[in-house]
Predict the structure.
Amino acid sequence: MSYQKVLLSKFVIIHLLLYNLLLNFFISFLFCLLFTTDIRSLSPQEQQRRIKWRAFSKMVMGSVVLLLFSEPTINVIRYFFYVLSRIL
């Protein structure tokens, strides 16, 4: 495999991982903003603390899920580029 193809495949993998991380953060943040009916009666400082804790915990859970599924995804991407290099 040529250097350019290896570099391209690494770029794609890194791009997909960063995209998943940003998407995970955005979904977690939105979820915390939309589903906060149980904390409306609390003080603003306590609300902020709970919202940040929920966002953090969902980020951790999303990162764990990402780590569990990233290796199979990378293998599929590698195989795709392997087949593509054989065709070209």
Q: What stands out?
A: The two ends are 11 Å apart (CA to CA). The chain has a mean pLDDT of 76. The CA atoms of residues 28 and 34 lie 10 Å apart.
